[in-house]
């Protein structure tokens, strides 16, 4: 079940009902017209974000779907699963295009390069793999983490990929050579999420140590710590503002936006099991299969 909610009024806009188990990952298409969801029911579903209509269900994985991502042109979806594979899907038809095999344990993270030519996958086998989007060929394996890799993201030029690991580090890798560029240390807990800034040499990392840290990608220098949070993070595409799904405050049931209390969450909406921010839109997903989508807009004068 997916719920869409107005952020200022708290009014439920629509419910997207279809999954039969927990929704673990959601993503917006580049034009924000589509939402893709991955579930423990082993399926991927595609939804119209404006009408709430379920467009198609994509079946093929034999185990839980842990991560979903759109290609930069919105024509493809990648899904990573407990079945140790990545699958590619055509968003227009729902057709399964190919299966990427190579990991020896479950795939917990997938991401497309900004130029669309590569896919990165992070796995519980402690590696990152790079794949050719068009052919499905495995390009290289990036080894160095001592813990599971739960998040991957590309630098805007597609030449560098970052990985966040349960070994509490972030590693930067050269996508052409596969060489490790640097290891960034500073978190005291597993790193759950990493995100590059689209317009400056910064990377943000979110950790189970309840902090978000900002780093200089060129030097690895720690710039600042934002706390107290523990959820995935992303940068706004329009600015250098970092947007954290963990702007949600579980205390007193308030959702905050830009430090302002904007929405009181009823007991039915807490606790949530995961979250994803994209621009001014926030999605929360729950163990019972619900997804709540909130869009933040400036008030009209």
From TrEMBL:
UniProt feature coiled coil, ranges: none
Gene3D superfamilies in UniProt: YVTN repeat-like/Quinoprotein amine dehydrogenase
UniProt KW keywords: Repeat, WD repeat
Residues in EML-like second beta-propeller domain copies: 25-180
InterPro entries, sorted: Beta-prop_EML-like_2nd, WD40/YVTN_repeat-like_dom_sf, WD40_G-protein_beta-like, WD40_PAC1, WD40_repeat_CS, WD40_repeat_dom_sf, WD40_rpt, WD_LIS1/nudF_dynein_reg
WD repeat locations: 16-57, 58-99, 100-141, 142-183, 184-225
PANTHER family reported for this sequence: WD REPEAT-CONTAINING PROTEIN POP1 (PTHR44129)
Protein known as: DNA, SC005
Lineage of origin: Eukaryota, Fungi, Dikarya, Ascomycota, Pezizomycotina
């Amino acid at each position: 079940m997916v719920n869409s909610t107005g952020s200022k009024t708290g009014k439920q806009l629509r419910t997207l009902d279809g999954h039969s188990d927990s929704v673990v990952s959601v993503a917006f298409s580049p034009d924000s017209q589509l939402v893709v969801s991955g579930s423990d029911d082993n399926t991927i579903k595609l939804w119209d974000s404006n009408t709430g209509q379920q467009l198609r269900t994509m079946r093929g994985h034999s185990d839980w779907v842990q991560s979903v991502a759109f290609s930069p042109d919105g024509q493809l979806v990648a899904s990573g699963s407990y079945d140790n594979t990545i699958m590619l899907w055509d968003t227009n038809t729902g057709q399964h295009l190919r299966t990427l095999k190579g990991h020896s344990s479950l795939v917990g993270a997938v991401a497309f390069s900004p130029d669309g030519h590569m896919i990165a996958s992070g796995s519980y086998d402690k590696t990152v793999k790079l794949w050719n989007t068009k052919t499905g060929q495995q390009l290289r394996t990036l080894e160095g983490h001592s813990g599971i890799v739960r998040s991957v993201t590309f630098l805007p030029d597609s030449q560098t990929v970052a990985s966040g690991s349960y070994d509490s580090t972030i590693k930067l890798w050269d996508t052409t050579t596969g060489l490790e560029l640097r290891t960034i240390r500073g978190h005291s807990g597993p790193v759950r999420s990493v995100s590059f800034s689209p317009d400056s040499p910064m990377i943000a990392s979110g950790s189970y140590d309840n902090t978000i840290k900002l780093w200089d990608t060129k030097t690895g220098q720690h710039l600042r710590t934002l706390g107290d949070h523990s959820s995935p993070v992303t940068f706004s595409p329009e600015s250098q503002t970092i947007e954290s799904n963990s702007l949600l405050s579980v205390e007193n049931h308030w959702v905050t936006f830009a430090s302002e209390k904007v929405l009181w969450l009823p007991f039915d909406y807490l606790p949530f099991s995961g979250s994803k921010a994209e621009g001014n839109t926030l999605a929360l997903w729950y163990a019972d299969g619900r997804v709540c989508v909130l869009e933040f807009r400036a008030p009209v004068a």
